[in-house]
Every structure is written in C-alpha cells, then in structure tokens.
C-alpha cells in the first residue's frame, strides 16, 4: 500500500499548467497505474497517520473527502499551499508585488551573467485552475490529469507567490526538467535564494513535498528563509516541520 502511494506521489505536478505531460514523470509511471477498474482507487488508497489523526489519501496523494478551508493557512507567517493545506476557493490575492519586485532583481542579476530569464507563469486564480483541470480531465481522464495538473484549490500558483521561471530562447524547456540541464537553470538553482526564492519541489524530496521535481517552479519566501532552506538542502515542509 505504501509503495503504491509513493509511486503516485512522485508523479504529481504542482504546477498544473499542463506542459509537463511529456517529461520523465510520465515514463516513471508503473504498471500499477494501468489499473483502471472500478476498484483501482480503493486498492491504491493508503492510510497515513499524522499527529494521531488518520487521513486517507487517494491515488493522487490527496486527502479523501477533504473540503477546501474557509481560511488560507499561515505557519510562522508563511502562506502554505499543498495537498495537506489547500486554499479557499475565494482566496484571490493576485500576483504578489513583493515577489514580482524580487523576481525583477533576480532577473537583472541573471542578465549580468548572460541569462535572460522569464517568469512564464505566476498567479493563477481558482477559477482559472478549475477551467484548466476540467479541460485536462475531459481530455485525459482524472487519473492522468492528476499527474500533471493540480486540482483547484491546491495549486501554489493561487498564492501569487509561485513563479515558473525559464530562459528566453529556451522556451522548449518551459515547465520541463530539461531546464535543469541548461546553464540558466543551473544558475537559477544556485542563485534564486539570494533574491528570496526557493525551488519548491526539489529532486529527491518528492516524498516530503508530495510533488514530483520541478526545476522551474520557484516560491517566494523572502531572502532569510530562502537562504536557510537552500543552505540546508531543505524544503518548505522541512523548514516549517509540516507534513506534505
Ligand atoms: Zn509552477
């Protein structure tokens, strides 16, 4: 049961812009995903005990029967959006001015080193996420859609603090882990924290964040916290000591 859950946790995308479907996360799907009978969900459901509270997760790693909350969750003053802590449907802050200003600084620094960065996807409203997810479910079915698109209320892009970053001229690597192999991707991974951004879903941390690696998805948390997380090779979940 746990093994099945781990497999699905690995292939979940936090971005949900649909551009990730061709990447390695798809080929990492195992034969287990081919179960398409009516009992598949039941078979793949697993139970996690977290702080004496038993929660049941579905094949997508989402908590079964979880309702979106009335309030967004802040832990140590940091807004969090994850499978454990979704956002209210009416939470619509728009893109953060502070995060945008930090990105502009980051972009200017990158340019001095010869890289032209682009934030190709930032704030995404709940309604837009509803639209995107419905289209993907319609096209590919729910199980497949869950592997590359966040469900409405669960996308970090709804916080206004998530920036998908790529390099102008290398658009083929937008929302693609091929970005990690480029000089610009390496520069960003090494320098983003100086401007307050952390790579939100690092490689090797899939079972901690609950999402597959996304070398392009960055979350603004401010310079101090970003530097702490970067230097400790950590994640937002580990920094806040919360579950995925
Ligand atoms: Zn993203």
From TrEMBL:
Polar residues bias locations: 28-43
Region (Disordered): 18-51
Pfam families tied to this protein: VanY
Span of domain D-alanyl-D-alanine carboxypeptidase-like core: 97-223
Gene3D superfamilies named among the record's database cross-references: 3.30.1380.10
Coiled-coil portions: none
Highest taxon listed in the record's lineage: Bacteria
Protein name, entry field: M15 family metallopeptidase
Native species: Viridibacillus soli
